[in-house]
Amino acid sequence: MADLCVRAPAKINLHLEVLGLRPDGFHELAMVMQSIDLADSLRLRPTADGQISLQCDRAELPTDSSNLVVKAGEMLRARSGFTELGAQIVLEKRIPIGAGLAGGSSNGAAALIGLNELWGLGFKSQELHSMAAELGSDMPFCLDGGTQLCFGRGELLEALAFNSTEPPALLLLKHPGVSVSTPWAYGRCKELRGDFYLEAEADFEQRRQALRQAPLLGAIAGNGSWPPLRNDLQAVVEPEVETVRQGLALLRQTEQHLAVAMSGSGPSLFALFSNLDQARTAHADLAERFELYGFESWCCGFSDRGASLLP
Ligand SMILES: C[C@](O)(CO)[C@H](O)COP(=O)(O)OP(=O)(O)OC[C@H]1O[C@@H](n2ccc(N)nc2=O)[C@H](O)[C@@H]1O
Ligand SMILES: Nc1ncnc2c1ncn2[C@@H]1O[C@H](COP(=O)(O)OP(=O)(O)OP(=O)(O)O)[C@@H](O)[C@H]1O
């Protein structure tokens, strides 16, 4: 069988609200996530030796079973019962690591979709979703991608559609020397805000309903202007990480931005624009300063899909 290629796009958080703590120790969230046109790729080749081997162009990433690609492959194979299934996988990274862009989760989602096809297993979308939810909170979103409300730990999804006549675009910044640990960010959030967490399911549901009706959803659909974006982890990370404060200040200087925020647990930052031309102009205007402060930067569009097989 021929090699199979899968695209694994990054996400940003257009909204991240920490509602409270769950009995499983995770946080109850109300989020809007958005796939973007910055993507890794996986090339898969089948073998029949029971080995799942991974090669990656980034030396700092482990390629053993701690990598979400291998974890996803091992889970899929275990659920299939066919122990002889194997694959050689080549991962090309473009999404920065530990950036709040769900690069690892998207790679894992791409492995689930790609190996399900490569090995002819025929697992249905719902079965892939439940495996993804076991592997990580962001991974179910990364399977479908696009624009989605994400509740629970992040795994309960409600699809939205963005304004497709003029899809927004973004200017993305990440300092290569800095990454933020997701468990640390949630732990710090609990220390700082735990006393104010909601506890009752009725209160969680009231916040979910408020988000479903929020002006943000109107802006995403192309009806109405963009409100300021909310990310509760930004309030936790910003005071602690100097490059996050610097990056936000730089992005706020861009002309014509619709909103500026941190993605996920950071430290990636983004400014939204009405279209790709405006994002590129803002990028060109500030390119020297991004370089001076040592930031990597990208301009990209919104994407309407998550991990997907390439023709
Ligand atoms: C920050 C976000 O990227 C926003 O989309 C996600 O919430 C993080 O999702 P993720 O990286 O897939 O997270 P997981 O691998 O499931 O969990 C990593 C750690 O983050 C914390 N965590 C994660 C998700 C959640 N709803 N509550 C949490 O408290 C827990 O300490 C957990 O041990
Ligand atoms: N395929 C992978 N790509 C990137 N990181 C991976 C992968 N597999 C496992 N990891 C581990 O996951 C950790 C977080 O990486 P990732 O790039 O997904 O962070 P993130 O973008 O902050 O994730 P999220 O937004 O989901 O919290 C890293 O420490 C890395 O070692």
UniProtKB/TrEMBL annotation:
Highest taxon in the source lineage: Bacteria
Q: Which UniProt keywords apply?
A: ATP-binding, Isoprene biosynthesis, Kinase, Nucleotide-binding, Transferase
Q: Report if keyword Kinase is assigned.
A: yes
Q: Which Gene3D superfamilies match?
A: 3.30.230.10, GHMP kinase, C-terminal domain
Main EC class the enzyme belongs to:
transferase
> What residues bind ATP, as annotated?
P96, I97, G98, A99, G100, L101, A102, G103, G104, S105, S106
Q: Name one GO molecular function term.
A: 4-(cytidine 5'-diphospho)-2-C-methyl-D-erythritol kinase activity
Q: Which InterPro entries match?
A: GHMP_kinase_C_dom, GHMP_kinase_C_sf, GHMP_kinase_N_dom, IspE, Ribosomal_Su5_D2-typ_SF, Ribsml_uS5_D2-typ_fold_subgr
Pfam families, alphabetized: GHMP_kinases_C, GHMP_kinases_N
Under Enzyme Commission nomenclature, its number is 2.7.1.148
* The reaction(s) this protein catalyses: 4-CDP-2-C-methyl-D-erythritol + ATP = 4-CDP-2-C-methyl-D-erythritol 2-phosphate + ADP + H(+)
Identify the pathway: Isoprenoid biosynthesis; isopentenyl diphosphate biosynthesis via DXP pathway; isopentenyl diphosphate from 1-deoxy-D-xylulose 5-phosphate: step 3/6
Q: Which residues form the GHMP kinase N-terminal domain?
A: 67-146
What role does it play? Answer: Catalyzes the phosphorylation of the position 2 hydroxy group of 4-diphosphocytidyl-2C-methyl-D-erythritol.
In Swiss-Prot or TrEMBL terms, this protein is called 4-diphosphocytidyl-2-C-methyl-D-erythritol kinase
Q: What's the source species' lineage? A: Bacteria, Bacillati, Cyanobacteriota, Cyanophyceae, Synechococcales
Protein encoded by which gene? ispE
